[in-house]
Every structure is written in C-alpha cells, then in structure tokens.
Amino acid sequence: MHGLTEHPDDRRRDDIVLPFQIEAPGLRGRLVRLGDAVDTILKRHDYPPPVAALLAEALALSATLSAALKYDGIFTLQLKGDGPVPMLVTDVTTAGAIRGYAEVSGELPDDLAIAAAPVRSLVGKGYLAFTVDQGEHTERYQGIVELTGDSLTECIDHYFRQSEQFSAAMQVTAGQNDAGQWRAGAMMLQRLPDQEAIVALEERDEAWRRSVILMSSVTAAELLDPVLAPADLLFRLFHEDGVRVYEQQPISFGCRCSHERAARILTSLPRREVEELIVEGEVTVTCQFCNETQHFDEGEVARLYDA
Known about the structure:
Elements: E1 4-5, E2 16-22, E3 27-34, H1 36-43, H2 49-67, E4 74-81, E5 87-93, E6 97-103, H3 111-116, H4 118-122, E7 126-133, E8 141-146, H5 152-162, E9 168-176, E10 182-191, H6 201-216, H7 220-224, H8 230-238, E11 243-245, E12 249-250, E13 252-253, H9 259-267, H10 271-275, E14 282-286, E15 293-297, H11 298-306
C-alpha cells in the first residue's frame, strides 16, 4: 500500500491551494480550502444566502483553475445570464489575491427551485467564460461555453468535455458553519498529457476513471471541515495508489481598487456627466468587488479635469 509524501510546510488548513499528484495513475490535482478569504468577500455585501453560496463556489472554482494554469497576471471567471443574478464575476492574481461580486436584479425563485438547480434558477440561460490577462502587451486568452447544467460543478464539467486542451474533473461546494461563517472548497483532477507516452491507453483510462470515482466520493462536509487536514483528506481518498502533496499556495482576499483607479474612471467620462453626479458637494465611486467607496469633492473633480 502506498502512502502520502507531505511537504513540511503544508500545515495551513484554510485559504490555501494544495497541489498533489496521484502516483500510480500519474494524475495531478488541486485541493482548495477557503475560510476567512471567502467569508470576508461575502460579508462586504448583503447577498441572499443562495447568491452568496453560488459566489462562494465560484471563488473556490477560480482559485482551483487559476492554480492549474501557468500565467503571470489575472485569471477571471464570469457567469452571465438572463436570470435574477445576471452577472457573477471572480478573479485571482498570480500572487493569490482573490475577489468577487454578484449582481442581483430580480426576485429570486423559491428555495426548492434554487436547491434543485442553483445555476439555472439564479443565472438562467447564458454563458461561462474564463479569461487570462497577462498585461497590455500580451494576448488575452478566453474560453467561453454555454451554461449547461443545474449546478456549477455540472457547468464546469460541460466546459471540460468541450475543451480539447484541458481534461479534468471537479467537485465544488460552499456553506456556512454554525457560527455563520462562510466556507468553500474544491477539488480537481487533471490528466497529465505526457502519460500518453508512458502508460497504455486502456490502463491510463482505467486509472482516470478510478480516480474520478474516488474523488466523487468526497462529501461537502469533508471539503469544508477545518479540522480535517487537507493532506489527510487526500490520503483518505487516494492512499491505495499513493499520493504526493506539494507546497501550499496561499489565497487571501485582495481588491485592486484605489482612489487613483476611481479617479481614472471618472476622467474617462465626459466632464459634464461627472458634474451632474455631484450630490451634496461630492461624487462617490463604489467598488463592486469590495464595496469600498471613494469620495471626490467638487474641487478635486475640477482639478482632475484641469490637470
């Protein structure tokens, strides 16, 4: 029986991405646990619980996918549809700063409908998009697929089935603990492309099927449990084949908004339009992600345009 090889620094249990590899099948994966990071993001807004849960899942999904890609910049996930939550956006930087927000513009359906099909009930018909932005002098990568599935896990599985470059399977979940704190977790398995030259096709496919079945057995409680160490969870699932974990990557809430960025937004608009927004001597700009508000008095507005 194979064991687990653990990196000595892998002791944090929350707000981490833990890369791992299953030895016998030659598969790699990522385990994500979000605690304070996701709770901070959600509590900056007054979302209805079903919307908060969907956004929490999207944050865990973003952290997982971004960690599986080689990039230096910003990874963005976007759900857009015609439902009462027409837009949901999350992004993660290479350094692990994560943020997200959801728009709520209509009355939500009843709890039973949402529980049965959260994506279909909340977002409606639309699309799921991934974007990797590495700066103004590089070409952006974007993948778009129709929202197909009741849950976020089903939607991402549909994306993987359509992709010719990314063969993977995933589990995503979110919820609140007894203290009302939000948590989210995700696990992803991905085929290693170089295994094609090493392992026979039939053996490789059987190893993939077995590992996906084992991953599918993980419960929401296990993914969210702060007491269960991430490495112990992986050993519980994959110990028969042997599993090796690598150095954890930290995740934390981080918004890139600032007074200077808000000023650039204002000056991108015609001066007359901005002046019409002045109320009680000032213009305010509120960040959709962190809900922080920047204030500009009339004198500063004038200086922005006169500079």
